[in-house]
Amino acid sequence: MMKKLLYALLAFAFLSGLAGESFAQQTKTTAVASLTRAGDTTTYTANTLVCASKSVDCVPIPIVLGRSQGPGTGVIVRFQLSKSGSTTTNANFIAWLFSASPKVTGLKDNSAYTGPYNSDLTAGAYLGNYTCAASSAVTGTDSNVIYECSASSLTGYTPFATTVLGNAGGTLYMLLSVTAAYAPAASEAFSLQPDALQD
C-alpha cells in the first residue's frame, strides 16, 4: 500500500510539473515491443508466464523508451496490448514492468508466476503492472484482439526512475502472464505498446 501511495505521489508531482511547462518541453514516446509464444496449443493454467519457449528460460521483453536528452523523469500514461489469436475466452493478461531485467531463472512458458521475486522488489526494479482484461478487449478488422490495459497504481500512471530512461536507448523490461485457463494459438504473437511522457 505504501509503495502504491509513493507511486501516486510521484505521478502527481510529475503531472503537476507538466502543467507549468510548455508542450514543446515535453517528450511523448511510444514504443512497440513484441513476443511470439511457444509453437504449441497447450492450455495455460492461471498465473503462469507467456514465453517463447518451454525448454529455455524466459527472456524478459525489452521496451525501449529512450530519448536524446539528458536525465529526466517520466510516467507511462497508456498501455495497450494486442494478440494475433482471435479468442477472448479467459484471455486475461498481466504485464509486469521492471526498470532492470527481472529474475527468470528456471522460468519457462507456462511456469507459475504470481508477481515479482523479492530480489526484484528489494533492488527497486519492479515498477508496477498492467491488467489487460478480455472484458475490455475489442476485435480488430484483421481478427486480432486489442486491449486497453489498466495500471496497478492509484493514479493510473506508472512513474519510472530518472536514471532508467535518461538517455537514448534506455530500456524497461516486461513479463507477461495469464490469470485464467487460457487456450492459446500456436506461435501466437503479442504486441505491447506503452505511451510515456518525459520532462
Query: What is the molecular shape?
Result: globular
Question: Structural class of the helix and strand makeup?
Answer: mainly beta
Percent strand: 25-35%
The low-confidence parts are 1-24, 162-169
Helix content: 10-25%
- Which sequence of SSEs, written as H and E, runs from N to C? HEEEEEEHEEEEEEE
Structurally, how many domains make up the residues? Answer: 1
Gyration radius, in Å: 17 Å
Largest sheet: 7 strands, antiparallel
Instruction: Figure out the total of helices.
Output: 2
User: What is the residue-averaged pLDDT?
Assistant: 80
Measured between the Cα atoms of the first and last residue, the distance is 27 Å
The strand count comes to 13
Overview of this structure, please?
The protein is mainly beta and 199 residues long. It is 12% helix and 33% strand. The protein has helices at 2-19, 118-122; strands at residues 27-30, 33-36, 48-49, 61-64, 74-83, 93-98, 126-132, 138-139, 145-148, 150-151, 158-160, 171-178, 189-198. The strands form two sheets. Strands 1, 2, 5, 8, 9, 11 and 13 form a seven-stranded antiparallel sheet that branches. A hairpin with a 5-residue loop joins strand 8 and strand 9 (145-148). The protein starts with a helix and ends with a strand.
Task: Summarize the topology.
Layout lengths: L1 H18 L7 E4 L2 E4 L11 E2 L11 E4 L9 E10 L9 E6 L19 H5 L3 E7 L5 E2 L5 E4 L1 E2 L6 E3 L10 E8 L10 E10 L1
Antiparallel strand pairs: 1-13, 2-13, 3-12, 4-12, 5-9, 5-11, 5-13, 6-7, 6-12, 7-10, 8-9
